[in-house]
Amino acid sequence: MGRIGLQLRATLENITRLRAEGEDFRWYLKLKCGNCGEVSEKWQYLRLTDSAPLKGGRGSATMVQKCKLCSRENSIVKDE
């Protein structure tokens, strides 16, 4: 199976939904901390089928990542 790459750069303010076909689609992202503005060095991937617990037992998110600079826990939650 071949791979097709698409690079999308956007400021996503007040966007409620951005979806691809299929639940097993991998989104490769460079993430920016919402607290200090640090941008990740490497590409991170997430899938809608993935789940990780949130700190303090507040449920789960598709991706949870701790910022290397300020140690804040950032998350991406799947909209159901």
Give a verbal description of the structure:
- The structure is a single chain.
- The protein is mainly beta.
- It has a domain at 26-76.
- The protein is 0% helix and 22% strand.
- The protein has strands at 27-29, 44-46, 52-53, 60-61, 63-66, 73-76.
- The protein has a two-stranded antiparallel ribbon with strand order 1-2. Strands 3-4 form a two-stranded antiparallel sheet.
- The protein is globular, with a radius of gyration of 14 Å.
- The termini are far apart.
- The mean pLDDT is 82.
- Keywords: Metal-binding, Zinc.
- GO terms for molecular function: zinc ion binding.
- Belongs to the UPF0587 family.
Describe, in short, the structure shown:
With 80 residues, the protein is mostly beta strands.
Structural class: mainly beta
Proportion of strand residues = 15-25%
The whole-angstrom Rg is 14 Å
Taken from the alpha-carbon principal axes, the silhouette is globular
By DSSP (H or I, 4+ residues per run), the number of helices equals: 0
User: Could you spell the SSE succession in H and E letters?
Assistant: EEEEEE
- The portion of residues assigned to helices is under 10%
What are the segments in which pLDDT stays under 50 over at least 5 consecutive residues?
none
Task: List how many beta strands DSSP finds.
Answer: 6
- Major beta sheet, specifics? 2 strands, antiparallel
The whole-number mean of residue pLDDT values reads 82
In order across it, which strands form the biggest sheet?
Answer: 1-2
Protein name: CXXC motif containing zinc binding protein
GO molecular function, one term: zinc ion binding
Family: Belongs to the UPF0587 family.
Organism: Callipepla squamata (Scaled quail)
